[in-house]
Amino acid sequence: MTSFARSDRSLIAEWWRTVDKMMLTSLFLLMGVGLLVSLAAGPAAAERIGFSDPYHFVYRQAFFMTVSAVLLVGASILTPSWARRVAGVIFIGGFLLMAYILMFGHEAKGAQRWIRIAGSTFQPSEVVKPALVLLIGWILAQRENFPNAPWTIVAFALYVATMGLLLLQPDVGQSALLTAGFLAAFFVSGISIWWVLGLGAGFVALGGGLFALFPHVRYRVNSFLNPSDYDTYQVDTAREALERGGLLGAGMGEGQIKHNLPDAHTDFIYSVIGEEFGLLVCLALIILFAVITVRGIFTASRHPDPYPRAAAVGLFTLFGLQAAINISVNIALIPNKGMTLPFISSGGSSLMGSALTLGFALALTRRRPEISMRRFIP
User: Fold this and answer.
1) Structure confidence by residue, pLDDT tens digits, 249-262
2) pTM for the whole structure
3) Which candidate in 105, 192, 248, 310 could, as Cys together with 137 as Cys, close a disulfide (CB 3.0–4.6 Å)?
4) φ, ψ dihedrals at 214, nearest 5°
5) Tens digits of per-residue pLDDT, 215-250?
6) Which pairs with CB-CB distance under 8 Å and at least 24 residues apart come from 123-126?
7) pLDDT higher than threshold 50 for residue 104
């Protein structure tokens, strides 16, 4: 393991001494699993879509995984103040792009969420989510320094504006994730009971409105509650693949789901893993996601500074809930929702969004002696 002299005060040395190495190792392990799984699912996806190179998605995943690794480390090196500044730039740019794609974006499967860039697509909402959650954590923390300013209303207004753009795309899944991160940051920052009651009533009404207004939301909920009355081919195929895999799997390259489902390399990658590598590997992945999420939330919740505490808890909530939603869909625990598995599913936007989420979270939870000593300074 790399070590630095105590006298070395360089940026990299300070980062290495203060970053959560267990967390960093776990994240790079997830990335390695993502590259391995791309070898299993990528060629079948390339053949089905019609690419001449069977390793198109493998090369693409390797490229974006490299970019994401750089983003993760780069974001984790930032100080909390610089993380806030970078998040502000990302949020403003991403928000403007989300408004742009409503008029000129790339449409697919009835949704308009992407921008075409050099033959690939980019989904701005993937990077807007972590940036906004970090900013909300900072905004809410300002209530301690400037208690008379309407910080809570400002944070809520930013959330509502972003939610509005997401629902116009429409993207209910990303909206749910953003809401979870927003609520986590709000909860940790210490909101009043009136805000809790108001937000609770508002989200119940929002859920009912989404069910009534969006046919695809209504279809997915109804097909989950009454599967015999609807076409549940994708979820049934995913569940059957997990059953075929058994304890140890059919072997890498021997699975069938990747040939039968169009989204096997993205939304249903967990079933590909289960079929080819088995239940033990699936359980190991769940444990890895749980360790990262729980360790991150526990570390963040003990931070003495309200800004890193609220923002980091929200970021780790984003990461953990996204993994939980993807896995739950694959094992038919919740209605089907297009949601990638962080660092595992194919997709450049998803990889970069996950990298920023955990990079910012690592930056905010790094051990900083000057902050810890505040507890002992009168």
Assistant:
1) 998 888 889 988 88
2) 0.91
3) 310
4) -105, 110
5) 877 888 888 888 877 778 888 899 899 999 999 999
6) 123/349, 123/350, 123/353, 124/94, 124/95, 124/97, 124/98, 124/349, 125/94, 125/98, 125/165, 125/166, 125/169, 125/171, 125/174, 126/174, 126/349, 126/350, 126/352, 126/353
7) yes
